[in-house]
Structure formats: structure tokens, C-alpha cells
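Q: I'm building a small set of examples for a reading group on sequence design. Run inverse folding on the following structure and report the sequence directly after it, with nothing in between.
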């Protein structure tokens, strides 16, 4: 099998588009820009991979790019941070760590 490729396409909003509600599709007539092609030519196992110590935060943006007030986007930042915290705790305590989400505590599942 060869590499997987997909176009990175940006759809440009106009003044009437709701940028805070991702459940409302924008009209297909909006201008689009193809920013390039992403090519994935290999993979790495999740366990012990290079990304294990990284936390993706969709609100860490480059200068000139601003986040919308989309509440889903805002919730993702906290959810991804919690996921990273849990993965990091599992690494430190071992695979059998479990989580008490109400207390924010961890304990051995055995």
C-alpha cells in the first residue's frame, strides 16, 4: 500500500456564517482555498511513540490566527488536557491505574 494523501482545504466564512455552532453547515458556495496536500507515508505505534509526551491543544494557535467562540472547540482543550493527564499518570503508576473523575484522584485498580 502506498501513502495516504488528503487535501488541506479551508472554507472561508462570510459575515452571515455562524462561527460558534459547528452543527450548522455553511453553504457549499463559500470560497475554498486548498492549502496543500498532507501525505502520511508511515506510522508509529501509540504505545511508547514519539507523541506520548505531547498534549495537543487546539487553542494554542500561531500569531494572527484566533479561535472562535465555538463552545465545542473550547471544551476540546480541557478534554485533551485531561486525556494527557490520564495517559501521563498511567505511565507513572503503571498500566492498571484507574481514575476517580469526581475527585480527580488516581489509585491502583488492583
Amino acid at each position: 500500500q502506498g501513502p495516504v494523501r488528503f487535501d488541506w482545504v479551508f472554507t472561508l466564512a462570510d459575515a452571515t456564517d455562524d462561527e460558534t455552532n459547528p452543527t450548522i453547515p455553511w453553504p457549499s458556495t463559500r470560497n475554498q482555498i486548498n492549502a496543500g496536500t498532507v501525505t502520511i507515508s508511515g506510522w508509529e505505534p501509540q504505545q511508547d511513540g514519539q507523541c506520548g509526551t505531547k498534549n495537543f491543544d487546539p487553542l494554542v494557535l500561531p500569531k494572527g490566527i484566533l479561535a472562535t467562540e465555538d463552545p465545542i472547540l473550547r471544551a476540546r482543550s480541557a478534554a485533551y488536557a485531561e486525556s494527557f493527564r490520564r495517559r501521563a499518570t498511567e505511565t507513572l503508576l503503571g498500566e492498571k491505574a484507574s481514575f476517580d473523575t469526581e475527585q480527580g484522584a488516581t489509585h491502583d485498580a488492583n
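The CA atoms of residues 38 and 71 lie 28 Å apart.
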